[in-house]
Amino acid sequence: VIDSLKRIFFTTLLRVDRIDYLKHKIMSDFYKKILDNNKEWVENALAKDPNFFAELAKGQTPPLLWIGCSDSRVPANEIIGAKPGEVFVHRNIANMVVHSDMNMLSVLDYAVNVLKVKHVIVCGHYGCGGVKAAMGNQSIGIIDNWIRHIKDVYRLHNQYLDSIEDETERFNAFVEINVKEQVFDLSKTSIVQSAWKNGQELSLHGWVYGLNSGFVTDLNVNFNSNVELDEVYQLKL
Ligand code: CO
Predict the structure, then answer these.
(1) What confidence tens digit (pLDDT) does each residue in 95-110 have?
(2) Residue 47 CA, ligand 1 centroid: distance in Å
(3) Which of 43, 79, 137, 142 is most buried (most C-beta within 10 Å)?
(4) Ligand 1 centroid – CA 130 distance (Å)
(5) Where are any strands of DSSP class E within the chain?
(6) Are 133 and 140 in contact (CB under 8 A)?
(7) 121: CA distance to ligand 1 center in Å?
(8) Cα gap 221→210, rounded to integer Å
(9) pTM value?
(10) Residue 9 has pLDDT above 80, yes or no
(11) Contacts of 133 (CB under 8 A, 6+ apart)
């Protein structure tokens, strides 16, 4: 009996080892590839401009802050053809501007007050998993508490959104409305209102990116002052 137990034990152990080995091999191929990619990228960049990294190391003056979704299919720099040094980036699930989020506030403060960016773009995207989750009732985990911010946007516009019968159309409309609300939320921050008060050139914009087309749509929510805000949000600075 002990012998057969031993046999079962060691065969199982070997099988687990084998699975781990295969998993590790798949992982390490990808992992190795990205390190090789980096070397190739450096070589190409230096071939085009030998001073490329030396210049970047001197400092950054990006004209734009990008607030986008963490979704791997919406890479900020790539879709707008921006080079390193041209975009300051903040990304989270469903491109939210949550006014008590220290991470977002710190990025915004640094972008506006130190880097003096001239534009802030909130870029959402159709097919956003975070927005989709906010339309449903499924509990996913701790993320539910983040998704709640998006649900609050739904509640604010539920009459309009509930009136759209087609689910895909409603989803697309919700994605757009969520971007607009995040732009409003940006304009309500003390950081943005202070910049405007001080005469700093700063425009806010809302975009939606089409995963299946690659094109961005400007939602025409462009702000450069707080006059359009509800009075209760206008800060006396
Ligand atoms: Co998304």
Answers:
(1) 999 999 999 999 999 9
(2) 36
(3) 79
(4) 6
(5) 64-69, 87-92, 119-125, 203-209, 216-218
(6) yes
(7) 15
(8) 18
(9) 0.87
(10) no
(11) 140, 143, 147, 150
Tokens (6 digits) for 88: 């300051």
What are 167-213's pLDDT values in tens digits? 999 999 999 999 999 999 999 999 999 999 999 999 999 999 999 99
- Give the start-end residues of each E strand in 59-171: 64-69, 87-92, 119-125
Pairing of strands 64-69, 87-92: parallel
- Phi, psi dihedral angles at 123 (to 5 degrees): -115, 110
| Distance of alpha carbon 83 from alpha carbon 30, whole angstroms | 25
Residues forming the active site = 69, 71, 73, 125, 128
- In whole angstroms, give the CA distance from residue 164 to residue 171: 9
Assign residue 141 a region (left: φ > 0; alpha: ψ between -120 and 50; beta: otherwise). left
pLDDT tens digits along 119-177: 999 999 999 999 999 999 999 999 999 999 999 999 999 999 999 999 999 999 999 99
Whole-number Å distance between alpha carbons of 132 and 127: 7
- Take residue 150 and report the two structure tokens written for it: 């998006």
Residue 93 is encoded by which pair of tokens?
């699930």
Q: How much distance in Å is there from the Cα of 225 to the middle of ligand 1?
A: 28
Using CA atoms, how far residue 108 sits from 30, 177, 179, 195, in Å, is: 34, 21, 17, 11
Query: How far, in Å, from the CA of 195 to the mean position of ligand 1?
Result: 29
Whether the pLDDT of residue 17 is over 90: the answer is: no
